[in-house]
C-alpha cells in the first residue's frame, strides 16, 4: 500500500482554508486547524538580554521556539538578536503575554501584531491615489517609467524632448500602466545632480500634459521639494524620492501637508559614488531597518501610514549578490507593513547575469518582476509596460491575487 505523502505549501490563512477544504473537515475543525497550519519565522534585533530571555520563556510556553545567541545567558545588560518560530496560533497566544512584560516587550508585541496582520489596518490594504482607490490585495500595480533625460541608462535619451516624452507616457497608459512616473534627473551610477531650473525645464511640460491627458495618476520622481511642489500643483498624484526624504528638508513636510502618497527608497551613498564597493553585513536586515526608520519618521511627521511606500532600491549601492539576495528575501521587506514598490526593470544586475545591454533585458526583467510579485511587491516600476502587464497578471493569478 502506498499513502502518497505530499508536502503542502501554506503561506497564509487563505491557503490554509483551501488545503483543509480539500478534505472536507467540520466547520469547527476548519476554524481550529487553519491558524495551526500557517508558520512564521521572525527575526528581532536590539533586544535587551532580559527581554530576550522572557521572550523565549513565553514562546516556549505556547509551543513555539526562540533561538538566542549563547551570550544571552550571561544576563549582562546588552542587546542581542533573536529568531522566533511559530504558527499564527502560537503568535496570537504569545502577543497578549508580551503586552504584560517589561523591557520593551510591549512595543515588540505591537510590532508583531502589525507585521503578522492581526491589526485592523491590515485587513484591507487600499492605496488612495489621484482620486482613485486601488485594492492592493486584489492585483499588483504597474508603474510606467517616463525618463525626460538625455543620459538615461535604459533608453539612451530617446524621450528627452517634451513631445516625445508625452507621447511615450500616453502610449504606456494605453498599454495598461496604472501610474506614470516622470523623472528629469538621471540616477544611473556615476551621475551628478542637475540644477533646479534645468529639472523644472525638463519635467514640467511633460507633467502638465500627462496629468491632463493620460487618464492615470502621474508620479514625480525627484529629490527637490520645489520640483515636487510645482508638479503636485500641476496635477501629479504622488512623489517618488530616491533619498527617502534625506536630501531636501522641505520634502517631507510638503508631502505630509499635501496628503499625497510618497515612496521612500533605500540607497547606500549617492548616484555618483553608490557603486564604489558597497558593503553590508546583512543587506536585507540593514535595508529593512533603514526603511522602517524613515517610514516611522514620516508617520511621526504626520503622514498617513497608508500613504507611505517603501522601495529597497535595487541597483542603488548594491552589488549583483546584494540585489539577488534582496529579491530572494523580499517578503522580509513586505513584512514592514507598508506598500512595497519594486524597480528591477532593465537594471545592470540582469545584464550581468545574461551579458546583455539594457535594450535586450526584457526576458530578464520579466523573470525579476514575476519573482517580485511572488515576494509581495504591490507596485512594479517598469519600462516595457505592455509586456510586464501581461507578466504581472499571470504572476498575480499564480499567487492567488484577484478573482481568478
Record field, number of beta strands:
13
The figure for the number of domains is 2
Radius of gyration: 23 Å
CATH architecture of the largest domain: Alpha-Beta Barrel
Number of helix segments?
Answer: 15
Strand order of the largest sheet: 6-7-8-9-10-11-12-13
Would you tell me which CATH topology of the largest domain applies? TIM Barrel
General form: globular
Mean pLDDT reading? 90
Major sheet size, sense and barrel closure: 8 strands, parallel, barrel
Description:
The strands form three sheets. The chain has an eight-stranded parallel β-barrel, surrounded by six helices. Strands 1-3-2 form a three-stranded antiparallel beta sheet. Strands 4-5 form a two-stranded antiparallel sheet. The protein has helices at 13-21, 27-37, 49-61, 88-98, 105-115, 162-174, 196-213, 225-233, 251-258, 283-300, 320-328, 330-334, 348-354, 362-375, 385-399, and strands at 39-48, 65-67, 79-87, 126-129, 132-135, 141-147, 179-183, 218-221, 238-241, 262-265, 308-311, 339-342, 379-382. The mean pLDDT is 90. The protein folds into two domains: 38-121, Alpha-Beta Plaits, CATH 3.30.70; 127-399, Alpha-Beta Barrel (TIM Barrel). It is α/β, with parallel strands linked by helices and 404 residues long. It is globular and about 65 Å long. Helix 1 crosses helix 2 (27-37) and helix 7 packs parallel to helix 8 (225-233). It is built from 15 helices and 13 strands.
